[in-house]
Amino acid sequence: MNLASATFADLTRIRETQPLVVNITNNVVTNTTANTLLALGASPAMTHHPADAAQLAAVAGALVCNMGTPGEENVAAMLAASDAARQAGAPVAFDPVAAGATPWRREVARRMLEAGPVSAIRGNASEILALAGGSAASRGVDSMYASLDAAEAAAVLARKCGCVVCVSGELDVVTDGQSSVTLAGGHALMPRVTGLGCTATAFVGAFLAVNRDALAATVHAMAVMAAAGGLAAAGAAGPGSFFVRFLDILYTLTEADLAVGARVLP
Fold this sequence. Notes:
single chain, about 270 residues, alpha/beta, 9-stranded mixed β-sheet, 11 strands
């Protein structure tokens, strides 16, 4: 099965089953994440309270933990929910936003990864390099490296954590430590909209809810991001109209769109 048909098969399952994707995410992107998941076909739930998060995660199709605004309650909620999700057998996707930017963020990421296995980690090159033990520089949440610069570190991190790691950027590198897939697509307008990186992690969660092959699910999520981003940019005047078009494209995305907008590099 090729990338477009395999991705569309998973997308169809999301649209048909509307899996509950519980998000403990940052204050900046809550609305963006909820709207993009709805346009994709999933059912988003947003929470920050530890007890509520754990109860939701126990009945979720997948849990997404995003440390973009790592207040104490958010961190406690991520830890409680990830424990509940693992006990219930639900996959966990982790977004280590600006993981190397401050000592506190490094501590939060350490707590998350030591608390138990996650299914997938999605971050930019600086974040993945930092998680893998490097001293990567960042400009806040922005990466100062290209995705391919972190490809080897991603494979090391995947083997260490027993999960899939995705380095997103102009190219997306997805690896389980043994096999790697590099995807091309998307558009330069995507980093101009706050929260599309976080959206990618939320989509990884949605695809994990219908496909427990974490490598395939993560590749398919990133293929949707790439295809929708490229199609949304056509005719967009700037970031505002781009985002509106991005939502509409997600809602109507077809297998043919995926075949045009996302491709695997050799």
